[in-house]
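Appendix B. Worked example

We walk through a single record from start to finish. Start with the input: the chain for Probable cytosol aminopeptidase, Asticcacaulis endophyticus, length 491.
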Amino acid sequence: MHIQLATQYPENHALAVLIGDGDALSAGAEKLNTISSGYILGSLKKLGFKSAKGKVQILSALPDQPYTALAVLAAGDLTGLKGADVESVVASLYHATKSAGFADLAIDMGSFPAEQVAHAMFALTLASYRFDKYFGAAKLEKAPSLKSVTLICDDVAEVEAAFAPLKAIADGVIVARDLVSEPANVLYPQSYADRIKGFESLGLKVEVLGEDEMTKLGMFSLLGVGLGSRKESKLVVMQWLGADDKAAQPVAFVGKGVTFDTGGISIKPAEGMEDMKWDMGGSATVVGTMVALAGRKAKVNAIGVVGLVENMPDGNAQRPGDVVTAMSGTTIEVINTDAEGRLVLADALWYTQDRFKPQFMIDLATLTGAMIIALGMDYAGVFSNNDDLAEKISEASKSVSENTWRMPLPTQYEKQIDSKIADIRNIGGRPGGSITAALFLQRFVNNVPWAHLDIAPTAWTNEQRLPTVPEGATGWGVRTLDALVKAHYEV
Ligand code: BES
Ligand code: MN
Ligand code: ZN
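Next comes the structure step. The output line below is what the pipeline stores for this chain.
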């Protein structure tokens, strides 16, 4: 969808005006509208319109008016609107009007601060996201009727300046959504690494390690997962050096990038297995975050490391009971080949802290079905060895309407992942399945502040949960990590 700015009502557009608590219409409406606010309010009254934030009433085309239609958007307290409120009401307006029949909508944002108009552009960008590249002409025809939105504002240049960093964040979210949406025959470790290489144009430095390099590094925990796949496993390292001091200690993000998870020899049931194309969601969030940071030239040194592996059953696949040695030297008994994400992250985490000595390390992974059982679909679980980092993640996620919930890392559960023949085993039984997975990861983290985000609940949604997050791939976490960096780690 096209989103643009103007200072005047463009002809042949439907017009949306905002209505606040207590019948206040957006101030610009008075000067733009040839219709009196009394007329609008009277019509709303007749229709029994009850103002509730985000509610939209469409008034059909009126005689003697230039507008093809008039949409009234309830926005709450018009003077005290915050970025997040603007995002949610404007995204709701998009959904209420996208299939109303008109192609062009103008939203009267005159008199709103440039920052809020920028948040409206941001919300429209995220709300109108569609992954339609595999639709043929007939299906594309059925796309929403709404093709363009023009935001009427006081000062185009000022809004454009305010939108620039938000645009970079939206780009990052959309990169993550696109990656997660791709089927696994299109997105596999090599093709994924190639796509990441493409982001070098933003100023990211990208290195791709193949199986030979990883063998030399001793990453047999990660490599074991890829043994059953015809596709070569990859580890991709992204660097954004945006701090003035290029040697300043970086922050680091690590992602699980299992491009398809059949379960391996511990194979999953057929039903729903197609969902496992999004088992690379953690890595997509890392890539999206790096794109956002580079795109807005964040003053931080940031590292993104993603372990890209396909988990397949095959004559060469690893077996339940195999023992592998991770890069750290820790030996792992692989009881269940479907608990593969932790095996990938074990080496990716160790490599990251060993090479980059980061200020903190945050990993993201669609790690456990148990996380969905524990928290439902609206919260990602946060596990951390550091209260300060955990608190900062919580604040950052709240600030961008992404939900997180802190989970414990109780040492007494460590015995669940003890092995009879190796240092540890890769599953800890059903009780606290997400927790024992996190405890497993912690075995590969030394003294660095670390957090693990289990995003199995939030990486994908079968229904629209927030107006800015359509069904499908969510891009969850890009906004949280970007907000975290912005609030505390830019110098
Ligand atoms: N990728 C899955 C976890 C998952 C399940 C993510 C559903 C999103 C939706 C992970 O690799 C896995 O298979 N975990 C197992 C662990 C078990 C074998 C200990 C699980 O959750 O069942
Ligand atoms: Mn699995
Ligand atoms: Zn998995």
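Two observations about the output. Residues 156-181 form the longest helix (26 residues). The radius of gyration is 25 Å.
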